[in-house]
Amino acid sequence: MTQLIKIKAQDGYDIHGFEWRLPSNQLAPQSKSRAVVIINPATSVRCRYYFRFAQYLFDQGYDVISYDYRGIGASKPKSLRGFYASWVVWGEQDFEAVLQDTAKRYAHQKIFVVGHSIGGVLIGLAPSNHLISRIFTMGSQQAYWPDYLAGHKLGMVLKWHGAMPLIATAVGYLPAERLGWMEDTPKQVALNWARMGRHLIPSIVKSPHQRQLIKDRFAQIKAPIMAFGVEDDPFGTSVALNRLLDLYVSSHRQHVRIDPKAMNHPPVGHFAFFNDRFKETLWPITLNWLQHGMVSDMPGLHVRNIPAHETAMR
Predict the structure, then answer these.
(1) If you ran DSSP here, which 8-state letter would residue 269 be given?
(2) Residue 196 near residue 156, CB atoms below 8 Å
(3) 226 phi and psi angles, rounded to 5 deg
(4) What are 238-255's pLDDT values in tens digits?
């Protein structure tokens, strides 16, 4: 059963989303073992994009929440011109609000998080991220341009690090829909992306105190993480995923990669994983991780284990 939800962030902003939740009269006595999954979207991707994936998880026995960050989709104001949102705000306000609300309304149920792209970064920004029991990320990285896939790098740099900040600064937001890129995007979010440096935290916060605070938030997460990457993802290269995984120092991390071409899969890239054409092939990888904390035993999967307090190889 899918229904609309509205959650108020600590600063008073209303975050809108959807949930798939089994009605109370259908809950079995063992329902306390039924986990709830929060889906964190990619930058400027509406939560509706993940509806079929959410329904799949619900059909497999999970309650599911998918929501829009402020400035996007159902959480968009009347005008984005002059509207402030950033990656930090999305993490420590929007995701934090959803996380706290989930912990309250789904008391006694474990909380899992699926993060797509920036959705895997925001986990580390939320003060209450210690409430999470298991994490799956797809293509999650920090958009540092030298990490982009060879052969795509020049075009991506010109688009995302050249044109995007110029347009966002001139217009007051990024009119991405008119450009055919993605959802319209708040200015500061576009600038966070465009101005990303080698190190995530100094790139998105200025004060030394806040930098340490966010570093500590990443470190307090002890939930195991599966970071899933595909070789045809121009953003999610191996070095890019490892750069983010290095921040989750207290978690056991498994960096799992596939080459769709070598496995005779259709292209996956940065977005297609959540398309239901992969329901029978790739989605069970997520399901097995959420259910058992195990990497699926299938040909073509390459796994690197990164124990807590170790650094990934780049």
Answers:
(1) T
(2) no
(3) -105, 120
(4) 999 999 999 999 999 999
Spatial separation of the C-alpha atoms in residues 215 and 118, rounded to whole Å: 17
Residue 79 and residue 217 in contact, taking contact as beta carbons nearer than 8 Å: no
What tokens appear for 170 in the block? 């001139």
Beta-carbon contacts of residue 230 (< 8 Å; ≥ 6 apart): 139, 236, 257, 258, 259, 260, 268, 269, 273
What pLDDT is attached to residue 99?
A: 98
H/E element holding 305? strand 302-306
Within 10 angstroms of residue 115's Cβ, the number of other Cβ atoms is 25
| d(C-alpha 265, C-alpha 216), whole Å | 39
Concatenate the DSSP letters of all residues of 188-252 into one string: HHHHHHHT--SSHHHHH--SHHHHHHHHHHHHH--S-EEEEEETT-SS--HHHHHHHHTT-TTS-
**At what angle are helices 187-194 and 164-171 packed, to 10 degrees?**
160
218 HSE (CA, 13 A, CB side): 19
Angle 188-270-167 from CA coordinates, rounded to 5°: 30
Backbone φ and ψ of 194, nearest 5°: -65, -30
Asked if the model's pLDDT at residue 29 lies above 70, the reply is no
pLDDT tens sequence across 155-186: 999 999 999 999 999 999 999 999 999 999 99
CA distance 226 to 224: 7
Residue 278, amino acid:
F
Ordered by where they begin, the domains of the chain are 2-23+34-306 (3.40.50.1820)
Residues 306 and 245: their CA atoms lie apart, in Å, by: 9
Of residues 20, 307, 268, 10, the one with CA closest to residue 139 = 268
Say which DSSP state 93 is in: I
What is the bridge-based pairing of β-strands 14-20 and 36-40? unpaired
Structure token pair of residue 178: 């008119």
